[in-house]
Design brief:
The protein is of the alpha/beta class. Helices cover 56% and strands 10% of the residues. The chain has ten helices and five strands, in the order H-H-H-H-E-H-E-H-E-H-E-H-H-E-H. It has a five-stranded parallel β-sheet with strand order 2-1-3-4-5, with helices on both faces. The structure holds cobalamin. The site of cobalamin has 36 residues, from helix 3, helix 4, helix 5, strand 3 and strand 4.
């Protein structure tokens, strides 16, 4: 079976060429041949997205290219997710979304996946979520944690509004966990926006939430 790093290089080339069909054929073939979907996600698709994000940082690609690459990557993430085993979720409920005005969804999707794989029930409220909806849903579903994925500076204020709303309504025991490019660039923003914790990636999101909620 082909090694994950070789597959990663191939997948990255397909993304860079904006070749949706080649990316799709490659991932479909891997799944047909019995490749572990979790390995495909962690060692092939995510590292390729990281390379593209870095290129964007260095202005080697433009927004239009990023848009198409993100769409191709998202399609393949969805395809892989369908193949992942669904286990009974017993570790508690987590509310997840992006702040109002933020339409970056790839990181959120990965965080939801890794939390589900770690047996959390994740209610993904989607993109551009009002702070009242985060809080109302957390209360209604007795969630232990609200997770906010924030990539844009100008919309991250929604996180402070969630904190204020939780405190004002006497639900300050519900933990607020943040992540996304914004916090990877500047982890200190976590305190500025009143979050309890941040994590730099989806794997660490699971670790941080376990620590906060006392899970094993
Ligand atoms: C892809 C992308 C887009 C795509 C989004 C497609 C989609 N379906 O999501 C498109 C092209 C649509 C887009 C649009 C825009 N974007 Co954009 N985009 C990016 C880019 C290149 C990569 C983001 C990404 O998907 N990364 C891959 C994922 C997997 O990584 P991630 O989101 O960081 O998630 C990981 C961790 O952060 C963590 N994590 C994520 N969420 C959470 C949540 C919790 C609770 C935890 C614990 C952890 C966690 O785990 C994830 C997996 O490991 C970033 C650059 C960057 N370096 O991030 C810019 C970036 C975020 N975009 C930016 C901007 C400005 C925009 C636009 C305004 C247009 C523009 N001028 O570029 C619009 C705004 C649209 C809107 N209103 O939302 C800026 C934001 C700057 C800022 N400080 O505000 C960035 C940083 C680029 C830059 N350097 O200028 N973008």
């Amino acid at each position: 079976m082909v090694q994950a790093n070789e597959l990663g290089e191939r997948f990255l080339q397909h993304l860079e060429k904006l070749d949706r069909n080649a990316a799709d054929e490659m991932i479909s073939a891997c799944l047909r041949e019995g490749y572990d979907p979790e390995v495909l996600l962690k060692d092939v698709i995510i590292p390729s997205i990281d390379v593209i994000a870095n290129k964007q940082q260095n202005r080697e690609v433009v927004v239009a290219q990023i848009y198409v690459m993100a769409k191709i990557a998202e399609n393949e993430i969805n395809k892989v997710l369908i193949e992942m085993p669904i286990k009974p979720r017993t570790k508690g409920t987590i509310i997840l979304g992006t702040p109002m005005g933020d339409y970056h969804g790839l990181g959120k999707k990965l965080v939801a996946t890794f939390l589900r794989l770690a047996d959390y029930e994740v209610m993904d409220l989607g993109l551009s979520v009002n702070h009242f909806d985060f809080v109302n849903m957390a209360i209604a579903f007795n969630a232990q944690v609200i997770c906010v994925s924030a990539l844009l500076l100008h919309t991250a204020l929604g996180i402070t509004q969630i904190r204020k709303e939780l405190d004002a309504r006497g639900y300050d025991h519900i933990k607020l966990v943040v992540g996304g490019a914004l916090f990877n660039f500047n982890p200190a923003l976590k305190d500025k926006y009143g979050a309890d914790a941040m994590a730099p990636n989806a794997l660490d999101a699971v670790r941080v939430i376990k620590e906060l909620t006392g899970g094993d």
